Structure prediction request, 395 residues.
Amino acid sequence: MRFEEMNIGPSVLKAVREQRYEKPTEIQGAVIPRAMGGEDVIGCSATGSGKTAAFAIPILEKLERKGGIQALILAPTRELALQIAAMVGALGKYRGVEVLPVYGGQSMRAQISALRRTEVVVGTPGRLLDHLRRGTMNLGKVRTLVIDEADRMLDMGFLPDVEAIIRETPRSRQTMLFSATMPEEVQRLGRRHMRNPAYFSAEHKEEKPKIEQACIETAQAEKFQTLIALLEKENPSSAIIFCNTKRMTSNLARQISKGRFQACAVHGDLTQNQRERAIRGFREGEPGILVATDVASRGLDIEGVSHIFNYDIPRNPQDYVHRIGRTGRAGREGKAFSILCPRDLENMMKVERYYRPLTRYRLPGLRPSPSGFRVAEEDIERPTRPRRHRPRRWN
Ligand code: AMP
Prediction:
């Protein structure tokens, strides 16, 4: 189906053409007609599948100018809220409606006055709840509610906030829920608050990003040199390097920038302004490397990230999938390298059990590692509490 065959009005269609979207992505083809017909929809799809436009287009079609807040989009992070608001704004530029991102760290007063004029609110749960408690935002006219990246929102402990916000919207509303994974908690959220939703999964289909993945074994003392050797070998046009701690993020960005590559750190301790500045700079290509914690790993739509490096293996295996999802977007190819030291082995095992086994290589020359990673017993950091399940062996 083409966009022209989807009953989309001329002003939104004009904006779609300006975005140079030639044909709907798989998820758009499935979600837009159903959502335009008023159905509740659950989309299981990673970022990069075109899900933002899938919910933005039906929302924009239904808006009445100056009709109060008619659409509410919940997002887990400020960056994602900003990015969604920018895309809804771009697709709605000829509809003459206001789209407002609402997140913590902004002036409350400016938000309160903007909230009176806006038709679409894109916000993080904490700040939205703040407005509801102060009585500075009325959701009584909301016709469409979108819960984006529901799994991440729940991982971050936002479930009670999300439910409190949902209760402030009319029961007659349409609800759309999007999530990269569908754990039981997300399904339960859907069952509790949606009416007979149409379920759509874009997994394992043509939209699946093409990401080449490799795991590079090295010793703890050579971790940094391994990263630099990989950067030199790959010479990425733009890369995100993930670390597990804020301190490591800052240190690594500083250390990398002493050499021929320029890197900038993004993590939760920076002010909103500093984070936005770093991400804006990176989007524009300066510097070419962003060193980030998982705060930045979700929902960032940075065009054309060619490489992902896991300097640390994430503790939560779902984060692995979200990290590598920053590359290989919208049908492009991407590469993801995970640097594996003995102390990250436990985390890697969790990733491999949750996701899939990764081929192991060693430098120089990315030789396949013949016998898997041999680690001395004492190199593995054992959890202090006894574990119920022993990790299965891999080679
Ligand atoms: P999303 O999954 O919403 O984060 O979108 C990922 C990227 O795909 C964004 O850069 C969109 O601008 C782009 N995109 C969305 N829909 C289309 C389409 N129909 N054709 C080409 N690119 C698209």
The chain has a mean pLDDT of 86. The longest strand covers residues 210-217.
